[in-house]
Amino acid sequence: MPTEIDLRVTVERWRLRRPFAITGYEFTESEVLLVELADGDLRGRGECAGVYYKDDTVARCREQVLRASDRIRGGISRAELLDVLPAGGARNAVDCALWDLEAKQQRRPAWQLAGLEPPGPVLTTMTLSADDPERMVERARDYASARALKLKLTGTELDAERVRAVRAARPDVWLAVDANQGFTRATLEQLMPVLVDARVELLEQPFARDRDDEMDGLRSPIPTAADESAQDVGDLDRLTGRFGVINIKLDKCGGLTRGLAMAAAARERGMRVMVGCMVGTSLAMAPGALLGQLCDVVDLDGPLVLTADREPPVTYDDGYVFAPEALWGGAG
What we know:
The protein has helices at residues 58-67, 69-73, 78-84, 89-106, 110-113, 133-142, 158-169, 185-197, 236-239, 250-253, 256-268, 282-292; strands at 6-22, 25-39, 42-48, 122-123, 126-128, 148-152, 174-178, 200-204, 224-226, 245-248, 272-275, 297-298, 315-317, 320-322. With 332 residues, the chain is α/β, with parallel strands linked by helices. A hairpin with a 2-residue loop joins strand 13 and strand 14 (320-322). The radius of gyration is 19 Å and the shape is globular.
């Protein structure tokens, strides 16, 4: 890295097409932090939205990046960054910007720097916000090209009707449900026969992230994925034997560098790997799509709920997502 890097930090707001509801939250816009690193004419970019349920706000992410600005401008490496910023959105944005800049400096695409094969399109889930069953059916039909859908559930009696209605409308798709910590053992046991009958393939984060012991003894016929419970590599030992799938989000673990390490560590423990996202633009999806080359499940549909996106965007075609190198990680 050079001895002086130009750093620019910008807060952006991207409007959603419609309110997006999950357990305990409703969003009408996506606030993101754009980090740009420039070495002469070469520029690397990264984006984060933070982790809302940990108070990892965009404002906080911005403050963290600015506090580390001298180290970043001095030419920090991705390995050094792990000791300078904690896991979270700020480190993710800087880390991804470093990958993007390094690809241009070395004239080698990010996939080569990561030691991966050339990336191709990956099948992605498309997410339905928790809503009245009729509206969820409408949106399921709007995603006509989707091969995989994920339903946001809330732990209420309406969940059973939501699942039945969407499955009846889309008998063709791979189906997952995400409670976002909204279930109890009692509500899950009541809903489980409905999930099985609807051929649900994945159950994500049923219980609160501070109550992982509720997974002990749970005999789920459906594979379970840890999301809010799985923040970083250090969580994996606690989750092994409780969950079969780990949902890696770069905003949680703090960047692609850490995400790749987390995927390898999960595999070593016999766990399947999933990559997910916060609501953000295509710039946030592109590094995730690279990690997605190693994953069993990909959930990178964030831009689909926005009224506008970056250029060039990731492309969604026949249920697959693909990130062009001109967007992020290209050799320039």
